[in-house]
Design goal:
Layout: H1 16-48, H2 52-80, H3 82-100, H4 106-134, H5 140-169, H6 171-190, H7 196-199, H8 207-214, H9 220-235
Protein name: MFS transporter
Domain Major facilitator superfamily (MFS) profile: 19-242
InterPro entries: MFS_dom, MFS_sugar_transport-like, MFS_trans_sf, Sugar_transporter_CS
């Protein structure tokens, strides 16, 4: 997410705890969903008599949604703000996750899983950008490391909820559990301002120009490597579904 001409707009200081809590829970739900789907599909395959191919496709459509969401979120965040796009992507995830609990067939479940991935894929890079741009340079790296810890917590929460809830209450309940806290995270995020760096951008780039810059000479190679690392990390959570 590249900036353009900067002005000098005074901004209030934001505590590290508030930055990490609001952004970190976004990553927690990202990891939670990736891990949760692995456990849910075991139950879903038995209930809906799904083949291995179908369960693999369900896992894949989530990854496709995440790829699409991450591809456009950065450009949209450059144009409309990190805070706004974080809120919208988290809202998409929350609504789609909650509606997944009401799915009655594979078709609608496919569609909802795409939108869940779309929201999560868009939220992940924006949350990281928010922490980077809201942190002093001296502690920026440390805060990003703390932020990434929420991913591990999300995977742990997914395993615990799946172990205790799915056998007794069913897979639909875990989707409701995932949607409700995500809505609370939106409330947390509403209390935070836009990042200081974004507020100081005088000229907002268009989405087309931002996308061209990401894949321009000198940056394209780094973009490809980052995408590969991101996809590998997320795909590890669903490898055993195939």
């Amino acid at each position: 997410m590249q900036s353009r001409t900067l002005s000098h707009v005074p901004t209030r200081q934001i505590s590290a705890a508030r930055i990490l809590t609001s952004s970190g829970f976004g990553l927690l739900f990202d990891a939670f969903d990736v891990g949760l789907l692995s456990y849910v599909l075991v139950s879903l395959a038995k209930q809906w008599h799904l083949s291995q191919t179908t369960t693999g496709l369900i896992g894949s459509v989530s990854m496709i949604g995440m790829a699409v969401g991450s591809a456009f979120a950065g450009s949209l965040a450059d144009k409309f703000g990190r805070r706004n796009i974080f809120l919208w992507t988290l809202l998409i995830y929350s609504v789609a996750t909650g509606l997944s609990a009401l799915a009655t067939g594979v078709g609608i479940f496919f569609v909802l899983r795409f939108f869940v991935g779309l929201g999560l894929g868009g939220e992940l890079p924006v949350a990281t950008t928010y922490v980077l741009e809201s942190s002093p340079e001296a502690v920026r790296g440390r805060r990003v490391v703390f932020l990434e810890m929420f991913w591990a917590f999300g995977s742990l929460v997914a395993a615990l909820i799946s172990f205790f809830v799915i056998p007794s209450a069913g897979w639909r309940i875990v989707f409701l559990i995932g949607a409700i806290p995500a809505l609370y995270t939106i409330i947390l995020r509403l209390a935070l301002p836009e990042t200081p760096r974004y507020q100081n951008i005088n000229k907002r780039p268009s989405m087309v120009s931002a996308l061209k810059e990401v894949w321009s000479e000198g940056i394209a190679r780094r973009s490809v490597v980052t995408w590969i690392l991101w996809l590998v990390r997320n795909q590890l959570g669903v490898l055993h579904l195939s």
